[in-house]
Design brief:
The chain is α+β, with helices and mostly antiparallel strands. The chain is built from 3 helices and 7 strands, in the order βααββββββα. It has a 7-stranded antiparallel beta sheet. A hairpin with a 2-residue loop joins strand 3 and strand 4. The longest helix has 28 residues. The chain is globular, with a radius of gyration of 14 Å.
Length: 141
């Protein structure tokens, strides 16, 4: 299992409460995590606590569909991606937490060597931008 962490300071004037509320908004989270979103469908659960969605996203190599489970907790949200691309199974578990003036995302990635390396690089490259987008949307709420 591969792990990585992305940490971003909250912008001045943006409260932790607003960021947690944005993390708990599953529609907003899906749109933040998937900037090239094609579609998503609610599968099961309760969007106010824990829910599973089927997400179709556009990637450089084409469309990909996967299951995404979001679980709200008092200081953030847990995300779980279960994907089955042609080259093997990929699981990405994230813990998004707000505290100490920061949004910290701890990510565990499981899959074959190639998938883990590619997913880790993608998280480290794109998720700081996801944090910034989430902050912008939270500030509008």
């Amino acid at each position: 299992m591969s792990t990585t962490s992305v940490s971003t300071s909250l912008p001045t004037g943006l409260s932790s409460r607003l960021v947690v509320a944005a993390l708990h908004n599953h529609d907003l989270m899906i749109r933040t995590l998937c900037p090239a979103l094609v579609s998503y469908n609610f599968e099961s659960g309760n969007p106010n606590t824990q829910a599973t969605y089927t997400v179709t996203d556009r990637k450089p190599n084409g469309l990909t569909t996967y299951k995404l489970t979001l679980t709200n907790n008092p200081t953030g949200v847990d995300s779980l991606v279960n994907a089955n691309p042609p080259v093997g199974i990929l699981t990405i578990a994230g813990k998004w937490r707000v505290g100490g003036g920061k949004l910290v995302e701890d990510v565990m990635i499981d899959g074959n060597f190639m998938m883990k390396k590619m997913a880790k690089g993608n998280v480290e490259k794109t998720h700081p931008g996801h944090h910034a987008m989430l902050f912008q949307l939270a500030a509008r709420a």
